[in-house]
Amino acid sequence: MATRQMIVAICLTAAVCLTEARSVIQEKAYNPDTSLTTPELIAKYGYPAESHTVVTDDGYILTLHRIPSSKRVAQKSPVLLQHGLLCSSADWVISGPDEGLAYLLADRGYDVWLGNARGNVYSRKHVDLRPSDKKFWDFSWHEMGVSDLPAVIDYILQTTGSEQIFYGGHSMGTTMFYVMASERPEYNTKIRAMISLAPVAFMSHLKSPMIQLASKVGDELKWLLDLMGVYEFLPHSDLLSLIGEALCNDHAITADLCANVLFLIAGFDSPQLNKTLLPVILGHTPAGASTKQLLHYGQEVESGKFRQYDYGLVGNLLKYGRINPPDYDLSKVTAPLAVYYSDNDWLSAVKDVDKLSEKVPNLVEKFHVPLEKFNHLDFLWAIDVDVVVYEDVIKLLENY
Protein backbone atom coordinates (compact mmCIF):
# COMPACT_ATOMS: atom_id res chain seq x y z
CA MET A 1 0.00 0.00 0.00
CA ALA A 2 2.84 2.39 0.90
CA THR A 3 4.49 1.72 -2.44
CA ARG A 4 1.26 2.44 -4.31
CA GLN A 5 0.81 5.71 -2.40
CA MET A 6 4.38 6.70 -3.19
CA ILE A 7 3.82 6.06 -6.93
CA VAL A 8 0.63 8.13 -6.88
CA ALA A 9 2.45 10.95 -5.08
CA ILE A 10 5.31 10.91 -7.59
CA CYS A 11 2.87 10.98 -10.54
CA LEU A 12 0.91 13.87 -9.03
CA THR A 13 4.12 15.80 -8.32
CA ALA A 14 5.35 15.21 -11.90
CA ALA A 15 2.01 16.39 -13.30
CA VAL A 16 2.12 19.56 -11.20
CA CYS A 17 5.74 20.24 -12.23
CA LEU A 18 4.94 19.79 -15.93
CA THR A 19 1.94 22.09 -15.60
CA GLU A 20 4.04 24.72 -13.85
CA ALA A 21 6.80 24.35 -16.44
CA ARG A 22 4.33 24.88 -19.28
CA SER A 23 2.99 27.96 -17.47
CA VAL A 24 6.49 29.44 -17.19
CA ILE A 25 7.25 28.68 -20.83
CA GLN A 26 4.02 30.28 -21.99
CA GLU A 27 4.85 33.43 -20.05
CA LYS A 28 8.45 33.72 -21.26
CA ALA A 29 8.94 32.13 -24.66
CA TYR A 30 5.97 30.09 -25.72
CA ASN A 31 5.10 30.22 -29.41
CA PRO A 32 1.43 29.28 -29.93
CA ASP A 33 2.28 27.74 -33.32
CA THR A 34 3.90 24.90 -31.38
CA SER A 35 0.55 23.38 -30.41
CA LEU A 36 -1.64 24.33 -33.37
CA THR A 37 -2.71 21.67 -35.86
CA THR A 38 -1.93 22.08 -39.55
CA PRO A 39 -5.43 23.43 -40.41
CA GLU A 40 -5.21 25.80 -37.42
CA LEU A 41 -1.82 27.08 -38.60
CA ILE A 42 -3.18 27.66 -42.09
CA ALA A 43 -6.27 29.47 -40.81
CA LYS A 44 -4.18 31.58 -38.43
CA TYR A 45 -2.49 33.23 -41.39
CA GLY A 46 -5.73 33.96 -43.18
CA TYR A 47 -5.84 31.08 -45.66
CA PRO A 48 -8.78 28.71 -46.15
CA ALA A 49 -8.12 25.27 -44.70
CA GLU A 50 -9.80 21.95 -45.37
CA SER A 51 -9.38 18.40 -44.06
CA HIS A 52 -10.15 15.35 -46.21
CA THR A 53 -10.15 11.62 -45.50
CA VAL A 54 -8.82 8.96 -47.87
CA VAL A 55 -8.98 5.18 -47.38
CA THR A 56 -6.23 3.06 -48.95
CA ASP A 57 -6.74 -0.31 -50.62
CA ASP A 58 -5.35 -2.01 -47.49
CA GLY A 59 -7.58 -0.14 -45.06
CA TYR A 60 -5.50 2.76 -43.71
CA ILE A 61 -7.41 5.98 -43.16
CA LEU A 62 -5.32 8.98 -44.17
CA THR A 63 -5.91 12.69 -43.54
CA LEU A 64 -5.24 15.20 -46.29
CA HIS A 65 -5.00 18.92 -45.61
CA ARG A 66 -5.82 21.43 -48.31
CA ILE A 67 -5.42 25.12 -49.10
CA PRO A 68 -7.87 25.64 -51.97
CA SER A 69 -6.98 27.91 -54.87
CA SER A 70 -7.35 31.59 -54.13
CA LYS A 71 -10.18 33.26 -56.01
CA ARG A 72 -8.08 36.41 -56.30
CA VAL A 73 -5.74 34.87 -58.88
CA ALA A 74 -6.13 32.53 -61.85
CA GLN A 75 -6.62 28.98 -60.60
CA LYS A 76 -3.97 26.41 -61.50
CA SER A 77 -3.39 22.67 -61.18
CA PRO A 78 -3.47 20.81 -57.87
CA VAL A 79 -0.12 20.32 -56.12
CA LEU A 80 0.45 17.47 -53.66
CA LEU A 81 3.25 18.05 -51.13
CA GLN A 82 4.47 14.96 -49.27
CA HIS A 83 6.53 15.08 -46.08
CA GLY A 84 9.55 13.07 -45.02
CA LEU A 85 10.25 10.48 -42.31
CA LEU A 86 8.80 11.31 -38.86
CA CYS A 87 7.12 14.40 -40.25
CA SER A 88 3.66 15.59 -41.26
CA SER A 89 1.73 18.09 -43.35
CA ALA A 90 2.87 20.77 -40.89
CA ASP A 91 6.33 20.72 -42.54
CA TRP A 92 5.10 22.92 -45.37
CA VAL A 93 3.41 25.61 -43.24
CA ILE A 94 5.20 26.06 -39.89
CA SER A 95 7.71 28.55 -41.30
CA GLY A 96 4.86 30.98 -42.06
CA PRO A 97 3.37 32.59 -45.18
CA ASP A 98 6.57 34.30 -46.33
CA GLU A 99 8.67 31.13 -46.54
CA GLY A 100 6.35 28.08 -46.33
CA LEU A 101 6.09 26.42 -49.75
CA ALA A 102 2.39 25.63 -49.29
CA TYR A 103 1.57 29.33 -48.82
CA LEU A 104 3.81 30.48 -51.68
CA LEU A 105 2.05 28.09 -54.06
CA ALA A 106 -1.42 29.04 -52.80
CA ASP A 107 -0.60 32.73 -53.33
CA ARG A 108 0.07 31.92 -56.99
CA GLY A 109 -3.24 30.16 -57.52
CA TYR A 110 -2.27 26.53 -57.03
CA ASP A 111 -4.66 24.16 -55.29
CA VAL A 112 -2.38 22.88 -52.53
CA TRP A 113 -2.83 19.47 -50.92
CA LEU A 114 -0.69 18.29 -48.01
CA GLY A 115 -0.30 14.55 -47.51
CA ASN A 116 0.04 12.60 -44.26
CA ALA A 117 1.54 9.13 -44.55
CA ARG A 118 0.08 6.19 -42.65
CA GLY A 119 1.11 6.06 -39.01
CA ASN A 120 1.82 9.74 -38.45
CA VAL A 121 -0.12 11.92 -36.02
CA TYR A 122 -2.86 12.68 -38.58
CA SER A 123 -3.16 9.19 -40.11
CA ARG A 124 -3.38 6.77 -37.19
CA LYS A 125 -6.61 5.01 -38.16
CA HIS A 126 -7.54 1.82 -39.99
CA VAL A 127 -10.87 0.26 -40.92
CA ASP A 128 -10.09 -2.86 -38.85
CA LEU A 129 -6.86 -2.36 -36.89
CA ARG A 130 -5.87 -0.10 -34.00
CA PRO A 131 -2.46 1.52 -33.37
CA SER A 132 -2.09 -0.81 -30.39
CA ASP A 133 -2.12 -3.79 -32.79
CA LYS A 134 1.25 -5.09 -34.00
CA LYS A 135 -0.17 -5.66 -37.48
CA PHE A 136 -1.10 -1.96 -37.78
CA TRP A 137 2.63 -1.10 -37.93
CA ASP A 138 3.62 -3.76 -40.44
CA PHE A 139 4.55 -1.31 -43.19
CA SER A 140 7.47 0.66 -44.53
CA TRP A 141 7.63 3.38 -47.18
CA HIS A 142 7.05 0.64 -49.76
CA GLU A 143 3.39 0.36 -48.77
CA MET A 144 3.14 4.16 -48.72
CA GLY A 145 4.30 4.18 -52.34
CA VAL A 146 2.12 1.38 -53.66
CA SER A 147 -1.02 2.14 -51.60
CA ASP A 148 -1.04 5.59 -49.93
CA LEU A 149 0.02 7.76 -52.86
CA PRO A 150 -2.22 6.14 -55.49
CA ALA A 151 -5.24 6.51 -53.19
CA VAL A 152 -4.40 10.15 -52.45
CA ILE A 153 -3.73 11.05 -56.08
CA ASP A 154 -6.97 9.44 -57.28
CA TYR A 155 -8.91 11.28 -54.56
CA ILE A 156 -7.43 14.65 -55.55
CA LEU A 157 -8.15 14.08 -59.23
CA GLN A 158 -11.71 12.98 -58.51
CA THR A 159 -12.35 15.88 -56.14
CA THR A 160 -10.92 18.59 -58.38
CA GLY A 161 -11.85 17.19 -61.79
CA SER A 162 -8.25 17.59 -62.92
CA GLU A 163 -6.46 15.06 -65.12
CA GLN A 164 -3.01 15.57 -63.62
CA ILE A 165 -1.33 16.97 -60.51
CA PHE A 166 2.07 18.37 -59.62
CA TYR A 167 3.91 16.40 -56.94
CA GLY A 168 6.49 17.77 -54.53
CA GLY A 169 8.27 15.54 -52.05
CA HIS A 170 10.94 16.02 -49.42
CA SER A 171 13.21 13.16 -48.36
CA MET A 172 10.93 10.13 -47.74
CA GLY A 173 8.28 11.94 -49.76
CA THR A 174 10.55 11.44 -52.78
CA THR A 175 11.21 7.79 -51.87
CA MET A 176 7.48 7.10 -51.80
CA PHE A 177 7.09 8.60 -55.26
CA TYR A 178 9.90 6.54 -56.81
CA VAL A 179 8.30 3.41 -55.35
CA MET A 180 4.88 4.32 -56.76
CA ALA A 181 6.17 5.31 -60.18
CA SER A 182 8.20 2.11 -60.56
CA GLU A 183 5.75 -0.37 -59.02
CA ARG A 184 2.58 1.25 -60.39
CA PRO A 185 3.89 2.97 -63.53
CA GLU A 186 0.41 3.83 -64.78
CA TYR A 187 0.47 6.70 -62.28
CA ASN A 188 3.27 8.46 -64.15
CA THR A 189 0.70 9.80 -66.61
CA LYS A 190 -1.19 11.46 -63.75
CA ILE A 191 1.83 13.61 -62.84
CA ARG A 192 2.55 16.86 -64.70
CA ALA A 193 5.94 17.19 -63.00
CA MET A 194 7.61 15.83 -59.88
CA ILE A 195 9.77 17.99 -57.61
CA SER A 196 12.33 16.05 -55.55
CA LEU A 197 13.70 18.07 -52.64
CA ALA A 198 16.67 16.28 -51.01
CA PRO A 199 15.87 13.04 -52.88
CA VAL A 200 16.39 9.70 -51.15
CA ALA A 201 16.70 6.46 -53.10
CA PHE A 202 20.31 5.25 -52.98
CA MET A 203 21.95 5.86 -49.60
CA SER A 204 25.38 4.23 -49.54
CA HIS A 205 27.24 7.57 -49.36
CA LEU A 206 25.26 9.33 -46.64
CA LYS A 207 27.36 11.16 -44.05
CA SER A 208 25.13 11.19 -40.97
CA PRO A 209 27.01 9.28 -38.24
CA MET A 210 23.78 8.53 -36.37
CA ILE A 211 22.15 6.90 -39.40
CA GLN A 212 25.34 5.05 -40.32
CA LEU A 213 25.53 3.58 -36.82
CA ALA A 214 21.86 2.56 -36.87
CA SER A 215 22.32 0.81 -40.23
CA LYS A 216 25.26 -1.22 -38.91
CA VAL A 217 23.17 -2.75 -36.13
CA GLY A 218 19.93 -3.11 -38.11
CA ASP A 219 19.44 -6.85 -37.42
CA GLU A 220 20.23 -6.46 -33.73
CA LEU A 221 17.98 -3.42 -33.51
CA LYS A 222 15.08 -5.29 -35.11
CA TRP A 223 15.57 -8.22 -32.72
CA LEU A 224 15.57 -5.89 -29.72
CA LEU A 225 12.51 -3.93 -30.88
CA ASP A 226 10.59 -7.15 -31.58
CA LEU A 227 11.59 -8.48 -28.16
CA MET A 228 10.29 -5.31 -26.52
CA GLY A 229 7.14 -5.26 -28.65
CA VAL A 230 8.01 -1.83 -30.06
CA TYR A 231 6.72 -1.28 -33.60
CA GLU A 232 6.06 2.46 -33.59
CA PHE A 233 9.00 4.85 -33.77
CA LEU A 234 8.94 8.28 -32.06
CA PRO A 235 5.19 9.01 -32.03
CA HIS A 236 4.01 12.58 -31.53
CA SER A 237 4.12 13.42 -27.83
CA ASP A 238 2.96 16.40 -25.78
CA LEU A 239 5.89 15.72 -23.44
CA LEU A 240 8.40 16.03 -26.28
CA SER A 241 6.70 19.23 -27.38
CA LEU A 242 6.99 20.59 -23.84
CA ILE A 243 10.68 19.67 -23.71
CA GLY A 244 11.18 21.38 -27.04
CA GLU A 245 9.50 24.52 -25.77
CA ALA A 246 11.59 24.52 -22.59
CA LEU A 247 15.00 23.61 -23.96
CA CYS A 248 14.97 24.83 -27.54
CA ASN A 249 13.42 28.28 -27.48
CA ASP A 250 15.84 31.04 -28.44
CA HIS A 251 15.98 32.28 -24.83
CA ALA A 252 17.20 28.92 -23.48
CA ILE A 253 20.89 28.27 -22.88
CA THR A 254 20.33 24.79 -24.36
CA ALA A 255 19.08 26.10 -27.73
CA ASP A 256 22.44 25.40 -29.39
CA LEU A 257 22.30 21.82 -28.12
CA CYS A 258 18.92 21.33 -29.84
CA ALA A 259 20.33 22.74 -33.06
CA ASN A 260 23.35 20.43 -32.87
CA VAL A 261 21.12 17.36 -32.50
CA LEU A 262 19.39 18.29 -35.77
CA PHE A 263 22.74 19.05 -37.39
CA LEU A 264 24.14 15.62 -36.45
CA ILE A 265 21.35 14.04 -38.48
CA ALA A 266 20.99 16.46 -41.39
CA GLY A 267 24.29 18.38 -41.64
CA PHE A 268 25.60 21.55 -39.95
CA ASP A 269 24.29 24.90 -41.19
CA SER A 270 24.09 27.54 -38.48
CA PRO A 271 23.76 30.52 -40.88
CA GLN A 272 20.47 29.20 -42.31
CA LEU A 273 18.92 28.04 -39.02
CA ASN A 274 16.07 30.15 -37.68
CA LYS A 275 16.43 29.40 -33.96
CA THR A 276 13.08 31.03 -33.21
CA LEU A 277 11.48 28.28 -35.28
CA LEU A 278 13.15 25.42 -33.36
CA PRO A 279 10.46 24.94 -30.67
CA VAL A 280 7.77 25.07 -33.37
CA ILE A 281 9.57 22.38 -35.38
CA LEU A 282 9.86 20.21 -32.27
CA GLY A 283 6.22 20.86 -31.46
CA HIS A 284 5.27 19.08 -34.70
CA THR A 285 8.22 16.72 -35.16
CA PRO A 286 8.58 13.81 -34.58
CA ALA A 287 5.10 12.99 -35.83
CA GLY A 288 5.43 9.20 -35.71
CA ALA A 289 6.46 6.35 -38.01
CA SER A 290 6.83 2.59 -37.99
CA THR A 291 10.11 1.02 -36.93
CA LYS A 292 10.00 -0.85 -40.24
CA GLN A 293 10.41 2.42 -42.14
CA LEU A 294 13.65 3.13 -40.31
CA LEU A 295 14.89 -0.45 -40.70
CA HIS A 296 14.16 -0.36 -44.44
CA TYR A 297 16.30 2.75 -44.84
CA GLY A 298 19.07 1.06 -42.83
CA GLN A 299 18.99 -1.82 -45.29
CA GLU A 300 19.38 0.62 -48.19
CA VAL A 301 22.48 2.11 -46.56
CA GLU A 302 24.06 -1.30 -46.11
CA SER A 303 23.13 -2.80 -49.48
CA GLY A 304 23.86 0.25 -51.61
CA LYS A 305 20.72 -0.61 -53.56
CA PHE A 306 17.23 0.83 -53.93
CA ARG A 307 15.13 -2.24 -53.34
CA GLN A 308 12.21 -3.70 -51.43
CA TYR A 309 12.32 -4.71 -47.77
CA ASP A 310 14.73 -7.54 -46.92
CA TYR A 311 12.99 -10.21 -44.81
CA GLY A 312 16.03 -12.52 -44.72
CA LEU A 313 16.65 -15.62 -46.83
CA VAL A 314 13.57 -17.58 -45.79
CA GLY A 315 11.31 -14.55 -45.60
CA ASN A 316 12.40 -13.36 -49.04
CA LEU A 317 11.72 -16.78 -50.57
CA LEU A 318 8.22 -16.73 -49.09
CA LYS A 319 7.53 -13.07 -50.00
CA TYR A 320 9.29 -12.69 -53.35
CA GLY A 321 10.15 -16.24 -54.44
CA ARG A 322 13.83 -15.31 -54.51
CA ILE A 323 16.78 -15.03 -52.11
CA ASN A 324 17.22 -11.25 -52.33
CA PRO A 325 14.51 -8.57 -52.47
CA PRO A 326 13.84 -7.12 -55.94
CA ASP A 327 15.24 -3.72 -56.94
CA TYR A 328 12.88 -0.90 -57.83
CA ASP A 329 13.05 -0.36 -61.60
CA LEU A 330 13.73 3.38 -61.89
CA SER A 331 13.55 3.20 -65.68
CA LYS A 332 9.78 3.08 -65.18
CA VAL A 333 9.76 6.50 -63.46
CA THR A 334 8.78 8.35 -66.63
CA ALA A 335 7.07 11.44 -65.17
CA PRO A 336 9.04 14.69 -65.67
CA LEU A 337 11.41 14.77 -62.70
CA ALA A 338 13.39 17.64 -61.15
CA VAL A 339 15.90 17.03 -58.36
CA TYR A 340 17.13 19.65 -55.89
CA TYR A 341 20.23 18.73 -53.91
CA SER A 342 23.10 20.25 -51.90
CA ASP A 343 26.69 19.44 -50.94
CA ASN A 344 26.13 19.45 -47.18
CA ASP A 345 23.09 17.17 -47.08
CA TRP A 346 24.14 14.32 -44.79
CA LEU A 347 21.16 12.13 -45.77
CA SER A 348 21.05 12.74 -49.53
CA ALA A 349 24.66 12.61 -50.68
CA VAL A 350 25.70 14.08 -54.03
CA LYS A 351 27.02 10.73 -55.33
CA ASP A 352 23.73 9.05 -54.48
CA VAL A 353 21.76 11.83 -56.20
CA ASP A 354 24.01 11.44 -59.25
CA LYS A 355 23.26 7.70 -59.35
CA LEU A 356 19.53 8.35 -59.11
CA SER A 357 19.72 10.99 -61.85
CA GLU A 358 21.44 8.57 -64.22
CA LYS A 359 18.72 5.94 -63.80
CA VAL A 360 15.53 7.98 -64.30
CA PRO A 361 14.65 8.50 -67.98
CA ASN A 362 12.94 11.90 -67.84
CA LEU A 363 15.12 14.19 -65.72
CA VAL A 364 14.10 17.74 -66.66
CA GLU A 365 16.18 19.64 -64.11
CA LYS A 366 19.03 18.96 -61.70
CA PHE A 367 19.32 21.94 -59.39
CA HIS A 368 22.40 22.26 -57.19
CA VAL A 369 21.81 24.61 -54.26
CA PRO A 370 24.66 27.17 -54.38
CA LEU A 371 25.04 27.53 -50.59
CA GLU A 372 27.96 25.44 -49.30
CA LYS A 373 26.39 24.53 -45.92
CA PHE A 374 22.78 23.98 -47.06
CA ASN A 375 21.55 20.78 -45.37
CA HIS A 376 18.74 18.21 -45.54
CA LEU A 377 16.26 20.16 -43.41
CA ASP A 378 17.12 23.50 -45.00
CA PHE A 379 14.94 22.48 -47.96
CA LEU A 380 12.02 23.06 -45.59
CA TRP A 381 13.05 25.63 -43.00
CA ALA A 382 16.17 27.54 -44.06
CA ILE A 383 16.02 31.30 -43.61
CA ASP A 384 16.58 31.86 -47.35
CA VAL A 385 14.86 28.74 -48.74
CA ASP A 386 12.18 30.82 -50.48
CA VAL A 387 14.81 32.61 -52.57
CA VAL A 388 17.44 29.90 -52.90
CA VAL A 389 15.14 26.97 -53.78
CA TYR A 390 11.44 27.79 -54.00
CA GLU A 391 11.76 30.53 -56.62
CA ASP A 392 13.20 27.96 -59.03
CA VAL A 393 10.57 25.37 -58.04
CA ILE A 394 7.76 27.81 -58.83
CA LYS A 395 9.38 28.83 -62.11
CA LEU A 396 9.59 25.16 -63.13
CA LEU A 397 5.91 24.58 -62.30
CA GLU A 398 4.96 27.64 -64.33
CA ASN A 399 6.69 26.10 -67.36
CA TYR A 400 4.43 23.03 -67.15
Q: What do these coordinates show?
A:
- With 400 residues, the chain is α/β, with parallel strands linked by helices.
- The chain has a single domain, classed as Rossmann fold (3-Layer(aba) Sandwich), CATH 3.40.50.1820.
- Helix content is 43%, strand content 13%.
- It has 15 helices and eleven strands.
- It has helices at residues 2-28, 38-44, 101-107, 141-160, 172-183, 209-216, 218-228, 238-248, 255-266, 278-284, 291-303, 312-320, 350-359, 378-381, 385-398; strands at residues 50-55, 60-67, 78-82, 111-114, 125-126, 165-170, 191-197, 232-233, 289-290, 337-341, 363-368.
- The strands form two sheets. Strands 1, 2, 3, 4, 5, 6, 7, 10 and 11 form a nine-stranded mixed beta sheet that branches.
- Helix 5 links the parallel strand 6 (165-170) and strand 7 (191-197).
- The termini are far apart.
- Residues 1-28 have low confidence and may be disordered.
